[in-house]
Amino acid sequence: MLVKWIRCTVVDRRGFERGQRKWAGLLGNRATGHDGSGARGRQGVAHTFSFWESRSFYDSFMARSHDRLAAAQSGTYKDMQVKLFDYRFDVKTGFEPRFTDADLVRVAHCRVHEERAEHFMLMQEKVWNPAMAGSPGMVRGLFGEAPGPEFLVLSMWRSAAEHGKYRTERVERLALRAQTEADVAALTGDIVELEATWTV
């Protein structure tokens, strides 16, 4: 699976939302899910996620339908950043690109020191994944990789309160155990509140 993550600043919310609804056309282009929303506490920041069965389906969509759909949102955003990640493994079990049972997504983008990439992936699997999987409010998630090395950790949560409990109780202790500071060169992320009307 290929994961596409887009982050941008919305300058015309109504126009952006109208354009976002037109992406329903993705269903005919082999995307297995698409969602977007605003970042909590960051006025105008929007995220969209799309999931593709393979790079070839994605490349075909980009060559044929993408520009027509994207034109509907032209001028409604600025500062767009686009990243592609190859799916590596689930966070919890059985990732599905379904957003109806979650209220928010935590997205973490990690740039990792090259010599520490293998350790970082191992710690994600052995330390972070079991901790998140054991948190009652965590629904599902995935871990993706891009050249750089860069990694995406996408986790879906039932509510902000449930995610808050996990953060308060565990994050600092887990970061020490996983030696995250030694692995990560840069970490950015957002808490993303899901917009049901943008879901395809």
Task: Compose a concise summary of this entry.
This protein has 200 residues and is an alpha+beta fold.
What does this molecule look like?
Mean pLDDT is 85; it is low at 29-35. Strands 1-3-2-8-5-7-6-4 form an eight-stranded antiparallel beta barrel. The relative contact order is 0.23. Helices cover 32% and strands 39% of the residues. The chain is of the alpha+beta class and 200 residues long. It is built from six helices and eight strands; from the N terminus they run βαββααββαββααβ.
Strand order of the largest sheet: 1-3-2-8-5-7-6-4
Distance between the termini: 17 Å
Helix content: 25-40%
Question: Main sheet?
Answer: 8 strands, antiparallel, barrel
Radius of gyration: 17 Å
Number of strands: 8
The helix/strand order is: EHEEHHEEHEEHHE
* Mean of all residue-level pLDDT scores: 85
